[in-house]
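Hi P.,

Sorry for the delay on this. The queue was packed all week, but I finally got your sequence through. Input first:
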Amino acid sequence: MPVRLEHIRQPNDADWLDISKIHQETSDTGLTDNPEQLQQKLEKGSWILAGRFNDRIIGLMIATETEQGVQLEQAAVRQITQRRGVLHQLLHHAQSWASKEGKTLIIQTLPDHLQASVANRGFVNKNNNWTYND
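Then the structure:
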């Protein structure tokens, strides 16, 4: 399942529909912000790193630029596409983008079961912040 990375600062109506579905399916552990909360983050400068397949958003992460780098949070994938490498590809594309742009990626909150996977992708744990390209 090839996933294409897209940086979205202003989702269109179809994007909001996809985002709402992801929120409904993953609100406990993935996309915890509802669309209204997400819109507020976008208005404050955050953006969506979206994974697209067949023009639909099937996975996403929220990105926020800080003095230390680009903070990634709330990674989530549609249930129907889970266990197909969507998040792996999304993270790979985000890392490629960060390397090209000279950005550091930062993950502050990472569930224990994902730590080994992120470490295998080149992230390093520094004081409970997982960083890439630091």
